[in-house]
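Q: What would this chain look like folded?
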Amino acid sequence: MKTEYHPSGLRGHANHGWLNTWHSFSFAGWYDPTRVHFGALRVLNDDYVAAGMGFAEHPHDNMEIVTLMMDGELEHRDSMGNREILRRGEVQAMSAGSGIRHSERNASHSEPLHLFQIWIFPRHKNTEPRYAQRQFLNTQQDNAWQLVVSPDGEQGSIVIGQDAWFSTVKLDAGLETSYPLHHPDNGAYAFVIEGEASIGDRLLTRRDALGVTETDAFNIKANSPLHLLMIEVPMHW
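A: My prediction, written as C-alpha cells:
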C-alpha cells in the first residue's frame, strides 16, 4: 500500500472577509506543485461563507462539481434553470459538461454557511450539463458507510460523470472499518472531517487527509468519534 499524507496545516488558506477558505489542492492564488491533484480529484475546498454573501454568477465547463453541505443554507442558481436551496446533510452534484453558469449564496442573513466543494475531472468532455441534489443526513447510519456519489447511482447515490465514488462514515471511538476499492488501479483520498483516525501507521486528525493507492482495501480505526469522507477516483483517466 502506498500513501500520500496531506496534513491540514499545509493546506492553502485565504480569508476574503466574506469567504474563509482552505484548499487541499492548488487553487486560485495558492499554488503548490506537490498538491495539484490526486488522480482525477482536482479540488477539495473547505469553505465558510458569511451571512448574505456568496459567489456571483460564474462559468464552469468539463468538470464534475460536488458540494457537501455541513451547516447553513446555500442558494443555488444556474443557467439550466435550477433555483434551489441546499441545507445541512444535502449533497449536490453538477456536471458542468459543455458549459454552465451558476451562482452560490448564503441564503441566511444572520448565520454562516459551511460546505465542502469538490471538483473531479470528467470521464468525457463536452457532455450535456446535468444537476442533482439529495438529502443524505436522514439516512446516515452510525458505524456504516454511506455512499453519496457514484458512476451508476447505486444505493440511491447521485450519479457523477466519472468512475468515482464518494462515501462518508461516522465511527464511534475504538471501532474499525475497512474500505474496499472498486477498482485496483483507483486511489482513495481519506479526509477527516472531524475526529482522529489511524490508517496503517499514520495518525490523522481534523482536516488531515491521506491518499491511498496500490491496494485493493485498507482499514481505518477511529481513535475518537470520527466523521470521515472517502473519495475514490481513477489515478489515470
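The chain is about 0% helix and 55% strand.
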